Amino acid sequence: MEAADGIVGPSPELLICGDLMVVSGGTKFLAARYKETNIDDLFIYDCTTASRKPQENQSEDGKPPGKTNNNILACAFSSSGKYFALTDDNKQLILFCTKPSWKCLSVRPVMRRCTSLIITAAEDKILVADKSGDVYSYSIIEPKNAGTVELGHLSLLLDLALSPDDQYIVTADRDEKIRVSLTKAPHVIVSFCLGHREFVSRIVVIPNFPDLLLSASGDGTLRLWKYKSGKELHCFQLNHLNIYEATKNEKKYAVSRIAYCCEGNYTAILYDCISAVSIFQFDASAQKLTFKQHITLNHKGWDVAFEETGGLWVLQENQQIPLLFYQPEDGQWQPVIDKKELVKISKYVRDHWTVFEGAMDKESCFQNLYKASFDNMSIYLKKKEERLQKQKNKRKDPQYESSEQTKKVRIGMLP
């Protein structure tokens, strides 16, 4: 199943905001205040119960509608954790209030299936990117209002980000571009961050260095930018880490998730085709990324998330051990298995493992996004060689020589 053109998915997600944790998969998400280990406060929401019904007479391409489902495509917390929003495969935008308890505020239609969403720092709007390259905004203050188109690309959008002050919106697309626009006037393009050679899969504006942007791509690089000017500061070739010994193929090093922690300026990345997490540290003085640690996973990783204090959570494709936790000690992350929060949330996930069945055994989320390459010159030269060889063989044929002599005699007899 493709959640959006070219994207095989969706993959389960793990989100942390303060003491709230959400694990999503399929049509459901599980939410809990994971630090309150003595309280059973699990909240479960199933998108199939949302009030909006599937459209019966129309589809995005004008063809008769096919079978739809409610798999969650993207979700996000607001900065304070007060709001949580998601979009599903049935073209719904669902908004929740999380405090004092979880409550669904609205279910609104979106124009197309979405690939990413984010809530503004002011917590007044939700920005949603879709597979046609458009970004729409939806009001939180007036949760029943329809969306407003803000900007458009000519390519599938894969991710979007906002500067911490909401002044700039950054969009990443399939055609290798990162575009920076003014949020209040999105038609004003401030800059392009150009340099990736494949689709840009993830972008993150660094919260405690708000002028800097991290990006990852199908070209197997992790890049650091001054995004307002479009200047590239650093490019890290991930295949130089030699994680995947069998090949240097860049496709193996495409990044599916990025998590950032202000405590220590650490970045954790999860690979699309390698069961591993790599951790980097941002050196502010040198303005570059330094590799710190590699964590090998025994199963495919679905998502990663940092706690505010630097603890690293990993959601993986294993029912018995669905979550891993690593605690930083002297600049290295050590596994912890008896953490009370880990025990609590792991039990919730195991008890509802059926929500992840549709995401099992998928080799890649991005396999259809890579550019197809064609060597037309070699094909031309090969055909030319075959044609010349055919002509050479034909000249050696006795019948061909006899025919040529007959032609010469006839030409000689002409007046």
Automatic annotation (TrEMBL):
Residues 388-415 are annotated as: Disordered. It comes from the Eukaryota. InterPro entries: Trm82, WD40/YVTN_repeat-like_dom_sf, WD40_repeat_dom_sf, WD40_rpt. Keywords: Acetylation, Chromosome, DNA damage, Nucleus, Repeat, tRNA processing, WD repeat. SUPFAM superfamilies: WD40 repeat-like (SSF50978). GO terms for biological process: DNA damage response; tRNA (guanine-N7)-methylation. Pathway: tRNA modification; N(7)-methylguanine-tRNA biosynthesis. Residues 396-407 have a biased composition (Basic and acidic residues). WD repeats lie at residues 193-235. Pfam families: WD40. One of its GO terms (cellular component) is tRNA methyltransferase complex. Belongs to the WD repeat TRM82 family. Required for the formation of N(7)-methylguanine at position 46 (m7G46) in tRNA. In the complex, it is required to stabilize and induce conformational changes of the catalytic subunit. This is tRNA (Guanine-N(7)-)-methyltransferase non-catalytic subunit WDR4 isoform X1. It comes from Python bivittatus.
